[in-house]
Design a protein that fits this description.
With 204 residues, this protein is an alpha/beta fold. Helices cover 52% and strands 14% of the residues.
């Protein structure tokens, strides 16, 4: 596919909805970079911080009174706030360089001043998400998978609402809300691409 103009796609997602797989497939089709957990590796390399420490805080709210501090130039912030500041910088810098896809991490709010940003939220029925997580994590008990989903969704919801002051998982600020179970991963990617064509961002 041919890109007609500079644009960015942000993808929020329920845990187990396939949002990451959708972003990766879309990025491969369009030939543009996808920024997800690789942002953690970028921060780790740039600031010489243990990636495991960053991973534990990624898309989570930390307690500023009990979390160990990471020293990289911000003296009065919790670990999560410092990580958010660095992620925001990387997201904006990447957006300035050219078309990109950003998964989670409040990217829709971070890029609110940028023109031509398409904000998408991916969701799916709980039963389908449980099946996906059981397969992905090699879990045999559906209740265990459901517990993980509840915990991860709660963490993402709290993180998003803390840093954006908007409700997570609602149509507010979204261009598309997509049930990934309705069309599957490939079909969902095709739907997004059709939308991008209609918006004049890409050509077949």
């Amino acid at each position: 596919m041919k890109l007609s103009k500079n644009f960015h796609v942000t993808i929020g997602r329920e845990y187990g909805s396939g949002g990451k797989a959708i972003a990766e497939a879309l990025g491969e089709d369009l030939g543009i970079k996808v920024f997800d957990k690789n942002i953690i590796q970028m921060i780790s390399e740039q600031h010489n911080i243990d990636p495991d420490v960053l991973e534990a805080t990624d898309e989570h709210i930390s307690n500023p009174f009990f979390d160990p501090y990471i020293s990289y130039g911000i003296d009065t912030a919790s670990r999560s706030s410092r990580l958010f500041a660095l992620q925001s910088r990387i997201i904006r810098d990447a957006a300035n360089e050219g078309p990109a896809i950003f998964v989670g991490r409040c990217a829709d709010d971070i890029l609110w001043e940028f023109p031509d940003v398409v904000n998408i939220f991916i969701y799916a029925p709980k039963a389908d998400r449980v099946k996906r997580i059981m397969k992905k994590e090699n879990i045999t008990e559906d209740l265990a998978a459901e517990k993980i989903i509840r915990r991860m969704d709660k963490a993402r919801r709290t993180y998003y609402q803390f840093y954006t002051d908007k409700k997570w998982g609602t149509p507010e600020g979204m261009d598309l809300m997509i049930n990934s179970s309705a069309l599957g991963i490939e079909g969902t990617v095709g739907l997004i691409e059709d939308f991008l064509i209609l918006k004049g961002y890409i050509e077949k």
